[in-house]
Amino acid sequence: WIDFSTNSISCFNKIKRKLDNRIINFIDAPISGGNLKAKSGELSIFVGGKKTTFNKVKTILNLLGKNIYVLETFGAGYAAKIAQVSLCYLNYLSLSEALMIGVKSGIKPKLMLDIIDKSASGGFTSSKYGPHMIDGSYDSSFSLGLSYKDLILANEIIRSKKMDLPVTNLTTKIYKKAFQKYGKKVNHLQVIKLIEESNKKVLH
């Protein structure tokens, strides 16, 4: 049994117990990369579970993914996927605030983004998602509802491991507010509208 979904730890535990009772091998293998990477077979796959089980299905996984991480602990695939996407959501908010500082100080959005891109703080987030912030499209590749769902799952892991992660907690609260205000179907970067509205300034 291969679970490619981005699932909750509680749901994972229920599935695993049922499969263990039936002596069915199980791995959690959530994926990352979106539709384009899926079509090209270049997904990232985070595999939790026994390596012996992975070896039985790796031919299938190799057809789907380019970067396959074998983590060898049940549930670790879910945790790895949620950890890396949670960082994305933190980065989106941080980037929008940096842009806001510049724009409110009279710097044109495109120029401020270029400054960030060419600085130590620049990187994948600013180069790929910054343009969607300053053109007002808010990126249609993902929804706000799914973003918020990921952060709910992150907080479930945080509670289960008794961790104290205040930045992730604050990020979740911001996404919850955006989710309640704009709905689940809007483009995921529409979360930054909260920052635009509170500062009475759009970034585009």
UniProtKB/TrEMBL annotation:
Domain 3-hydroxyisobutyrate dehydrogenase-like NAD-binding, chain residue ranges per copy: 75-195
PANTHER family xrefs: 3-HYDROXYISOBUTYRATE DEHYDROGENASE-LIKE 1, MITOCHONDRIAL-RELATED
GO molecular function, a single term: NAD binding
6-phosphogluconate dehydrogenase NADP-binding domain sequence ranges: 1-70
InterPro entries recorded: 6-PGluconate_DH-like_C_sf, 6PGD_dom2, 6PGDH_NADP-bd, HIBADH-like_NADP-bd, NAD(P)-bd_dom_sf
Gene3D superfamilies: N-(1-d-carboxylethyl)-l-norvaline Dehydrogenase, domain 2, NAD(P)-binding Rossmann-like Domain
SUPFAM superfamilies per UniProt: 6-phosphogluconate dehydrogenase C-terminal domain-like, NAD(P)-binding Rossmann-fold domains
Naturally occurring in which organism (per UniProt): marine metagenome
Pfam families found in the cross-reference section: NAD_binding_11, NAD_binding_2
Protein name (record): 3-hydroxyisobutyrate dehydrogenase-like NAD-binding domain-containing protein
